[in-house]
Fold this protein.
Amino acid sequence: MKLISLALVVLLGGLFMAATADFPDWGDPASPASVHVSPRYIEKTMEETSVPNIVTAVLADYRGYDTMFETAVVFTAGVACFLLLRRRDPRPGPERIYRHQATGVIVEMRHKPAKEPAGEVFARIDDDWVPHDLIIMNVCRLLIPFIQLFGLYVIAHGHHSPGGGFQGGVILGASIILLALSWDLRTAMGRLSEAATGLMSAVGVFIYAGVGAMCLAMGSNFLDYEALGPLMFVDPVHARSLGIFFVELGVGLAVMATMVLIYKNLASEGRLDQGL
Amino acid sequence: MDWVVTVMLALGLVFFTGAAVGILRFPDFYSRLHPAGKMDTLGSFLMLAALALQELSHFTLDNVLVAVKIMLIVVFYFIASPTATHAIVDAGLRAGQGAWHKPPGERP
């Protein structure tokens, strides 16, 4: 069996190497990609979409259908992680652990208390790894708003500089994950609950597909943003730019929520009750 | 202005080189974090400030904007980098990583 796989790998690898020799050279101006498609984008993007960043225009407009399903793939990954990892059975060991804030004494409870104790006297902690560091907690609390502001900037400024929905969504998701790392999972869950992440990742894809369907309803092709011009009271060229912005918002939402969803399930073994 | 920029860039390089040598040469986890945390911070401050000064040498609104953005990076780096080093040391201590001691009988 191993010999067969080795032979297969060598054969296919050899075929692959032989095939790459026929590729055009890197940056070859006479290669097919540089002759037909690229000049068209480079020359026409500005007048057709008024978006200076050609990459964004190609990603979200000329090839918007492709990107819609990329967003759907992100959403599907989140759903798959949820279905594989999420579990309802209770964790073995004590039900709740609290730290008395003034003395540092740890209290274990076998059963769920009828009423949560006041947070400033007893703070709930995890049972295995309890980072409780004032410097890290407060510096992260200070930095997270700026990280989120930068994430929004990356989403909204994708027209003019490197960026867009995927990158900005990852930055936003990372800010929530940083909150979970520096405080704990429950704090992050308090900011963005499980239902919210699930809903937001679906709504992100829905916004993207909805913008496309709206174009269809306005009597044009799917994801042909020009048709949205009359709805937004702008000329067709600006409608393209704004349409790109809307689908980028959807992408950002979906990516952020999916990242947080996957992280929560991985960090807490699917129980979402404790973890970093 | 060019001279100031050049000197700051060179000084930044010196600090980065020191950090790299320190990470390679220091004996254990905690002492290696010392050059990584301190000299990287100072080195990147010098280099980024030099870049901001270089931008300001042609004084237009766009360049000032770029310089302000670069200095913002410095501000956030100054907050985040020492905190990250602190977090790594904290994690090492909690995970039970011991500190290095000089072997007995060795000459200083």
